[in-house]
Amino acid sequence: MVSVKSIACNPLLIPISLFTLSCVWLYFLVTIAPKLDDTHGLNQLKQLSSLLLAYSQLNSTYVFVLFCSAYVFKQTFAIPGSLFLNLLAGALYNVWLGFPLCCLLTAIGASLCYTLSAVSGKVYIVKYFPTRIQYLRHKVHENRSQLIYGLLFLRLFPMSPNWFLNIASPIIDIPIHLFFISVFIGLMPYNFICVQTGCLISQLKSLDEVLDTTTVLKLIAIAMVALLPGFLFRKKVKLNDKQNTN
C-alpha cells in the first residue's frame, strides 16, 4: 500500500496514479461501445462522429459520458486534441449545447491540471522551465491589480501555450478562481469557432479551414481588446498618482 511518506518523497506518484486510473476508465468506456478507432485525421473524425451520432440514438447518456470523460482527461493531462473534440462536439450536439459544454469542460479540465501541478508538479516545472516561470511570476506581480485582463489576453491570443499556462499558474500565484474564469471566458471564441465548424463537419475538406488566416486575425483582435481595460486602468492609476504628487 502506498504510504503518505512515499507520496511526499515522490510527488509524481499522484499524477501517475490518476493518469493510470483515467486510462482504465476510458478503456472501459471504449470496450463497452461499438468499435472506436483512434482519430488522427479529418476523415476518421467524420467516421467517428457518424458512429457516435448513430449510437447516441440508442444510448445518449453513454455517448455524453464518453465525450465528457475524454475531454476532461485530455485537459487534465495537457494532451493535445482540443480541435478534434470541439469539432466532434459540434457534430454531436450542435452549437447551443456543444459550445457551452466545451467551455465548461475546458475550464474543469484545466482546473484539474492546475490542481495536479500545485500538488505535485512545482519542483519539476521550476526545474525545467526556470526562465519562463521567473518571467511570468514577475509579470503577474507587476500586474496584480488588473490580473484578470492579462489572463484573458493570454487565453484569447491564439498562439498562447495553454498547456504551459495551466501547469505554471499555481506556481506563479494565480488564484484558482481567476484561473477558472480566464479559461472559461478566454477560450470561448476558439471553442465557438471549432464547435460551429463541427456542425458542418460533413462539408469540411481540410482542418486548415477551421483556423484560417482571417479567423486567426480575428482572435488576435479580440485578444487585444481584452487588454484595453487593463491599459486604461493602469493609465488612470498613474494619472491619479501624478495628481496626488503634485
UniProtKB/TrEMBL annotation:
Q: What InterPro entries does UniProt report for this protein, alphabetically?
A: TM41A/B, VTT_dom
* Topology relative to the membrane: Multi-pass membrane protein
Is Metal-binding tagged as a keyword? no
Note the superkingdom of the native organism: Eukaryota
The record's listing under PROSITE patterns reads: PROKAR_LIPOPROTEIN
Give Gene Ontology CC terms: membrane
Main localisation? membrane
Keywords carried by this UniProt record: Membrane, Signal, Transmembrane, Transmembrane helix
Q: Is Coiled coil set as a keyword in this record?
A: no
**Subcellular localization, as worded in the UniProt entry:** Membrane
Start and end residues of each VTT domain:
79-198
State which residue ranges cross the membrane.
12-30, 51-73, 93-126, 147-164, 176-195, 216-233
The record, for PANTHER family, names: PTHR43220, TRANSMEMBRANE PROTEIN 41A
The family classification in the record reads: Belongs to the TMEM41 family.
Output this protein's name: VTT domain-containing protein
The organism named in the record is Oppiella nova
